[in-house]
Design brief:
Elements lengths: L1 H14 L34 H15 L2 E10 L2 E10 L6 E6 L15 E6 L2 E5 L13 E5 H5 L1 H10 L18 E8 L2 E11 L2 H7 L4 E9 L4 E7 L3 E11 L12 E2 L10
Parallel strand pairs: 6-12
Antiparallel strand pairs: 1-2, 1-11, 2-3, 3-4, 4-5, 5-6, 7-8, 8-9, 9-10, 10-11
């Protein structure tokens, strides 16, 4: 079970790149967990540049939506995992539902199908597994974890906040983290886009708990409708490519039926 739990933790961390900024305007103040450091490049940030303003406008446009389909390719340590599914934010049904190959997540011992589904909502992660053939959980095809038990209280709190915002929300920190560069016009996924590049800091809580790099280089391609088409982030250890489509209204992410869900007992504290 430890292998499965670790795999779920990695995937949940990668599912959302957003961070809560405490409410009000989408771009007033720093997001919780922000690493307030000078730009690594040494160049001064210019939040009033046309490119920086374009990034803020793109995020505001995305936040006004409530859901998006994402195909995410995650490369780390010579391994590649591809996830596809829906992110929903900005309401009581905020969360994510995605599918991936079990082997890509190290869960092939628990799910022998070509693809498996995972749902993240309300502080829980639900993972499709092979139903046990016998025992008290006979026939149950879902396994539930709490985010806190999987990743720790601090990271779980950060991830829960992130569920309230779109997957590109943290790009609001790009203009204050260094220069935002206009790369140019490019055709991406068959669509005309404008390509921008900058740096985004990681949430300090996740940095401390997961020992990840403090910032990542980010490229984002913005379509003619003002919404992101592709985003690539690379922190030197992991490269994530997200392709966005079908931005829309609220999508309700539902829990699997309780009668079909295996709920592991809570961990017990060691006693002297």
């Amino acid at each position: 079970m430890r292998t499965a739990t670790a795999a779920v933790a990695v995937i949940v961390l990668a599912l959302t790149a957003a961070a809560c900024d405490g409410g009000g305007s989408y771009h007033q103040g720093a997001a919780p967990g922000t690493n307030a450091k000078a730009p690594a490049s040494g160049a001064a940030p210019d939040p009033d540049s046309a490119a920086a303003k374009a990034i803020v406008a793109m995020v505001d446009r995305a936040e006004a939506m409530r859901s998006v389909h994402v195909v995410s390719v995650q490369q780390r340590g010579g391994k590649t995992a591809t996830l596809a599914g829906i992110n929903s934010w900005g309401g009581p049904d905020a969360g994510a539902v995605v599918t991936a190959a079990p082997a890509a997540l190290g869960m092939q011992g628990m799910n022998h199908h070509d693809r498996m589904e995972m749902r993240t909502l309300d502080g829980f992660e639900y993972v499709q597994v092979d139903p046990p053939a016998a025992g008290p959980n006979k026939g149950k095809g879902w396994l539930r974890f709490t985010l806190a038990a999987t990743m720790g209280e601090e990271v779980a709190a950060a991830m829960s906040e992130q569920m309230d915002y779109s997957p590109v929300h943290r790009l609001l920190l790009m203009p204050s983290s260094g220069p935002v560069t206009l790369i140019g016009r490019e055709t991406v996924e068959g669509r005309p886009t404008v390509h921008y590049r900058g740096t985004v800091p990681a949430d300090a809580r996740i940095v401390a708990a997961r020992k990840v790099p403090e910032s990542a280089g980010v490229d984002v391609w913005v379509g003619a409708d003002g919404l992101p088409v592709r985003m690539v982030s690379d922190d030197g250890k992991e490269r994530i490519t997200d392709v966005f489509s079908d931005f829309g209204g609220v999508v309700r992410i539902q829990q699997p039926p309780a009668a079909q869900t295996i709920v592991p007992p809570p961990p017990t504290s060691a006693t002297a």
